[in-house]
Amino acid sequence: MLYDPANHRSLIGAPWSEPAARAGIAEIASDAVVAFRGPRGLWPNAPEDLDEVEADEPYRNVYFGAAGAGWAVQRLARDELGPELPRATETLGGLAEDYHRDPELVQSAPEAGPAISLLFGESGIRLAAYAGGAVTDLDALAACVDRGRDCPTRELCWGSPGTMTAALAMWRRTADPRWRELWLDSAGWLLAEWEDPIWEQDLYGRRRRFVGAGHGFAGNAAALLAGADLLGDRADGVARRCADVLSRLAIERGDLAQWPSRQGEEWKYSVQWCHGAPGMVISLAGLPADPRTDALLIAGGELTWSAGALRKGPGLCHGTAGNAYAFLALHARTADERWLARARAFAMDALADVRRRRSERGRGRYTLFTGDLGAALLLASCLRDDAAFPFLADL
Are strands 256-258 and 8-9 parallel, antiparallel or unpaired? Predict the structure, then answer.
């Protein structure tokens, strides 16, 4: 088996319609605005996201904290799909300093003191503030990128592929050459650390070789490929090497393809953005056209569709919304309309799952990567036919 059927279920959403999608986005965004408790109280934590030590304090990070939620609400408001967050600039602009004074998730951070990481630390919080229209210290953001260059995690969530993503976003937005140089400095280190066939992660006290987008090869490859125009003569070689690894690590069964969560551990087949076929497709869909690459990416999409919706939830990291971005990526690559239809089917399922869980819980889950706002952003992406993955590729 290339996936565990017990982790999946049949689709439960209504048929796609633009009015229903717009209504669902507005509903999720409005619920987040109503639940907002101000610049100090932020949002209530979801029980599924709680750390035992920090259960009573609202998180500030991008992944499941206020930076990600605030950015998402403002992103939807900018597209006139939902209400603006009250006191948004004050809230987003104050998160980094609050975090720096009283850092969270310090037990998991790979460095002493406040983490610099994109999804769980200061660089992501500052980037979310800037993208959301708030004032933030860009010198401090640049310092995070510089400090993150040789982080031993060698992965997206905590390490330099994440801080590189922040630098590239700032380079694209500002054309300030310091961001280009910071990105190139980190890219050079990451390329020098690339072992055969993939990087080793020093993460959470263990050394392993992850394959997928959240903590492994695919996320690193996506960070490098996103800045391929900055790599000069190295760009073609990086793309060829990424395509080779995609092929070497694939497990194929008929017209389906899957990738293990960790190199050499083919017993565990997740079907999520963070680990498994969806994240591989999303991360590597920008590779140059090639018959073998094309076939593998399509087979990964077929695996994602065959598995169905995720029982874990509707979110981006390990939920149905994240998996749908594999279909949007394939639609952008192939122009085959079935992929857009499949993305929209998953989007409507994610909306139905958000509503079901909110009814059972008595309130929403106000996070970007694990909660309801990721489903709203997917619905918005389906309206625009936009394959850019939230926060990582759409800034």
Answer: unpaired
Q: What is the CA angle 246-249-255, rounded to 5?
A: 80
The CA-based angle 281-311-377, given to 5 degrees, is: 55
For residue 383, give both structure tokens: 């309206």
Q: State residue 201 phi and psi, 5-degree precision.
A: -100, 130
Q: Count of H helices and E strands in the chain?
A: 15, 6
Instruction: Write down the pLDDT at residue 264.
Output: 84
Strand partners, 394: none
Q: How far is CA 231 from CA 185, 194, 196, in A?
A: 11, 16, 20
Task: Name the stretches of the chain with pLDDT < 70.
Answer: 51-56, 266-267
**Going along the chain, which residue ranges are E strands?**
8-9, 201-203, 206-208, 251-253, 256-258, 309-310
Residue indicated by tokens 């994440």: 162
- pLDDT tens string 334-386: 999 999 999 999 999 999 999 999 999 999 999 999 999 999 999 999 999 99
Task: HSE, CB side, 13 Å, CA atoms: give it for residue 110.
Answer: 25
- Rounded to 5°, the CA angle 355-58-111 comes to 120
How many Å apart are CA 277 and CA 288, to the nearest integer? Answer: 19
CA-CA distance, 61 to 68, in Å (whole number)? 7
Q: Identify whether the C-beta of residue 141 lies closer than 8 Å to the C-beta of residue 166.
A: yes
Residues in the chain: 395
